[in-house]
């Protein structure tokens, strides 16, 4: 029986029409489950908490190597819906671009690797296995998304030898960049507590605001490092300072501030927490103000040294686009930060210029191009 190739443009459109704003599944994983099952994959829903996840495997795992794709079907909120010029979940095509929330980030990527994987195993079945690990929560807190899939894999003796995360990675031109690493991310939440009082009698109060301002100024002025061979310098940004005080004649009892740190492989989150604690305590002692800090670590930095996987991806990208992709560690975080504990991982996808924007869109030709790249990667991996 002949196999009919999967059209990645149609699959992208079908996925966009699923309104899957985090953590709502919206029908996207149900659609993929049905498609992959019909194509011979064994599919398992790995839902945890409010999050829907899908694990799909073709092959038994023991017959050679396993190549994996990871991606997400959830999307960020629409923002100002009135500002959209098209239906955000309509997948309308205009002037060679498909519009809709998730068109770039990253329903086109999921469609491309699902289409490539289905066609590959049905036309040239490999001596090995192909896995698709797809989550419904990458854009949110992400504790029950890819992490849940990896926990389930460990508990069920499932493995991936090499993984490609299909996030959009190129800033402007298709094929110009892959991600071989990402900086880590953590947030520090500070609370300074003093004594409330009348602004005319500051000696009777204990104002936490100057202490907090001093601490934030110290942290913001400090250069964490100069960068490393593969990473830009780590950064710290003060993102809010709040008192919630509506009165101009009241010294508040409490003040809160938040910082976000993006850190390279010079640091671990533990080392940064220790540094923040020391800085906070020095200001607390100077001002005789009580400080408290809570931290949230989104992920450690990761780095996959240039090698078999990046060479495989680079060769396929150049063959299909004529472009030699840069091996980069720039940008925010992705679920590769979790996959790196399981196997070597590299990210490659299409141009991410409009992701999260109003009128998010993808060039239709790039969807087909991306499927061709993923197809070539699979063929070369199992050659």
What does this 3D model show about the protein?
Helix 1 crosses helix 3 (103-123). It is elongated and about 90 Å long. By secondary structure, the protein is an alpha+beta fold. A hairpin with a 2-residue loop joins strand 4 and strand 5 (97-99). It folds into 2 domains: 8-182 and 302-381, Aminopeptidase, CATH 3.40.630; 184-299, Alpha-Beta Plaits (2-Layer Sandwich). It is built from 9 helices and 19 strands. Strands 1-2-6-3-7-18 form a 6-stranded mixed β-sheet, with helices on both faces. A 4-stranded antiparallel β-sheet has the order 12-14-10-15, covered by helices on one side. It has a 3-stranded antiparallel β-sheet with strand order 4-5-19.
CATH architecture of the largest domain: 3-Layer(aba) Sandwich
- What does the overall shape look like? elongated
Distance between the termini: 24 Å
Strand content: 15-25%
What name does the CATH topology of the largest domain carry?
Answer: Aminopeptidase
Q: From N to C, what is the helix and strand string? A: HHEEEEEHEHEEEEEHEEEHEEHEHEEH
Helix content: 25-40%
CATH-assigned homologous superfamily of the largest domain: Zn peptidases
- Using DSSP, what is the number of strands? 19
Q: Can you give the mean pLDDT? A: 95
Poorly predicted regions: none
The largest sheet has its strands arranged as: 1-2-6-3-7-18
CATH first level of the largest domain: Alpha Beta
Radius of gyration: 24 Å
Provide a count of the helices. 9
SSE-based structural type: alpha+beta
């Amino acid at each position: 029986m002949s196999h009919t190739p999967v059209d990645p443009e149609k699959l992208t459109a079908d996925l966009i029409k699923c309104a899957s704003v985090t953590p709502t599944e919206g029908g996207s994983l149900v659609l993929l489950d049905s498609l992959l099952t019909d194509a011979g994959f064994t599919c398992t829903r790995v839902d945890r908490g409010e999050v829907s996840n899908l694990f799909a495997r073709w092959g038994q795992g023991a017959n050679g190597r396993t190549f994996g794709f990871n991606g997400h079907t959830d999307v960020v909120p629409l923002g100002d819906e009135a500002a959209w010029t098209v239906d955000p979940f309509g997948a309308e095509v205009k002037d060679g671009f498909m519009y809709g929330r998730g068109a770039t980030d990253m329903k086109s990527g999921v469609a491309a690797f699902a289409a490539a994987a289905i066609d590959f195993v049905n036309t040239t079945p490999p001596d090995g296995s192909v896995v698709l690990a797809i989550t419904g929560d990458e854009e949110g807190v992400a504790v029950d998304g890819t992490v849940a899939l990896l926990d389930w894999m460990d508990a069920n003796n499932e493995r991936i030898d090499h993984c490609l995360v299909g996030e959009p990675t190129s800033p402007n031109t298709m094929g110009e960049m892959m991600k071989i690493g990402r900086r880590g991310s953590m947030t520090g939440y500070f609370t300074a507590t003093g004594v409330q009082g009348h602004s005319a009698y500051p000696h009777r109060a204990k104002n936490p605001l100057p202490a907090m301002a001093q601490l934030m100024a110290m942290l913001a002025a400090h250069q964490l490092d100069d960068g490393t061979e593969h990473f830009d310098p780590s950064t710290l940004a003060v993102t809010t300072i709040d008192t919630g005080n509506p009165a101009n004649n009241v010294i508040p009892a409490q003040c809160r501030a938040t910082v976000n740190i993006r850190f390279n492989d010079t640091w671990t989150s533990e080392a940064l927490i220790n540094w923040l604690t020391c800085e906070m305590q020095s200001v607390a002692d100077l001002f005789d103000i009580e400080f408290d800090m809570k931290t949230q670590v989104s992920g450690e930095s990761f780095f996959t040294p240039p090698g078999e996987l990046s060479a495989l991806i680079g060769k396929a990208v150049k063959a299909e686009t004529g472009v030699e992709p840069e091996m980069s560690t720039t940008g925010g975080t992705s679920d590769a930060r979790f996959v790196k504990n399981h196997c070597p991982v590299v990210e490659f996808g299409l141009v991410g210029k409009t992701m999260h924007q109003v009128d998010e869109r993808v060039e239709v030709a790039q969807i087909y191009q991306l499927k061709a790249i993923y197809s070539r990667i699979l063929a070369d991996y199992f050659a």
